[in-house]
Give the backbone structure.
Amino acid sequence: MSIITVIGTGYVGLVTGTCLADIGNQVTCVDIVKEKIERLKQGVLPIYEPGLEELVQRNVHAGRLCFTTGYKEGLDNAEFIFIAVNTPSSNGQGGADMRYVESAACSIAEELDHYAIIINKSTVPVGSGDVVSRVVKRNLKRDVRFAVVSNPEFLREGSAVQDFLHPDRVVLGSSDTEAAYKVARLYMPLRAPIVTTDLYTAEMIKYASNAFLATKISFINEIAQICERLGADVKEVAVGMGYDKRIGHAFLDAGLGYGGSCFPKDVRALAHMAGEAGLHPQLLHAVMEINHDQRRLAVTKLTNILGSLRGCTIGVLGLAFKPNTDDMREAPSIDIIRWIASQSAHVRVYDPVAMNSAHEALIRASVRVEALTFCENAYAVTEGADALIIVTEWNEFKSLDMLKVRSLMRRPVLIDGRNIYEAVEMTRLGFIYRAMGRGIGPDPSVLPSGDTTGMLHQQVKQDREEEVR
Ligand SMILES: NC(=O)c1ccc[n+]([C@@H]2O[C@H](COP(=O)([O-])OP(=O)(O)OC[C@H]3O[C@@H](n4cnc5c(N)ncnc54)[C@H](O)[C@@H]3O)[C@@H](O)[C@H]2O)c1
């Protein structure tokens, strides 16, 4: 058993602390937000994460997990101190905002009265381990030694507990091999491969991994646009590609692009780091541009069918940046709703768990609240709607009674931003259906008139017939 402190009780900190307690350690979680800590003490979680609530309760009950706002109390006898605070984009430039990490490092230094290993779990720019060392050294009140280890986190919201307990790998970076070895021992019960390297490389592994995954998403979205124009189906293309072991099936879902608290800010931060180093990261810029355009594309598909959106009612299903989370940070829904609302349309919205966070996020994004109706369920969203957009692919949307949906809508326009339905079935039910990157194969006659994709496809068909003649 080790004595561990985790600074920050967000998605990463709370999951890290709880899981480390669950494998037998004594963990104290520290956060500066009093309300969060008070609620955690009462067993109320500040975030939605499947399986986490039970795990928190079990470990609190077993006396292995506790919460405090006080660094002094939190650091008492701690052998390992994890920093898991937020590192959002800094205003304007796209670099990572290190304010919270530096503040945590400073607070640790002020209270530290014994040797401890400080482990940075936050995603931080290359070189930040040295920054943490400097800040701690500068602010120490007592003559104590400490070590700094980088240990980037790779969990995904929505499956964070499973991801933490069954990681593909654990990355540890430090110039202090003994400290890195001690941290490695903490992770031994997880039986995961452990990659040990230097601080800079460990920090870079995190950015390179996220940038690569974001690139896969933008790549398949670019392919989707080409598929749509040429009459191929990107969903089947992705299946066919994914069987190639060098490619794999993961992150090949075309749609509205990535969002959330990591990919957007991490790709931006990596591009910023490269720019600061005098480089021009062309690929990263293209990844970001394509991702932005995918969101736009959904609204363009809508206006292509409805014309002006003024006075229209548009239903939006799914608000969180992905299913199984309530996280609204950089969710595609925010841009999409803002663009629709700015055209004097009314927007009816629903998400299974993100309604509260969405309300706050949309207000923060300056969306006119009068333009919004927060509905109780998915069917309520569709009532009187001129169009429906699927923005987040929650499972419950996949099993809706689409005949009922169709009957509740004023006009049967369905924009499937996540490709969860089949075109043939939706067309049979009477929807004017548009997906992302799913051309309709060799028979364009099923498309309603006025459809530009259909026209293009018609052209391709005519060319083919001429070739045969
Ligand atoms: N969310 C993810 O899926 C994910 C996955 C991997 C890595 N990361 C990285 O992990 C880090 C944390 O992300 P998150 O999503 O958990 O953030 P979060 O915003 O959910 O949580 C951060 C927490 O830190 C607290 N905090 C801020 N400053 C503090 C301080 N000085 N002392 C104590 N507490 C403080 C905040 O109150 C908040 O509760 C980020 O660098 C992120 O990039 C996130």
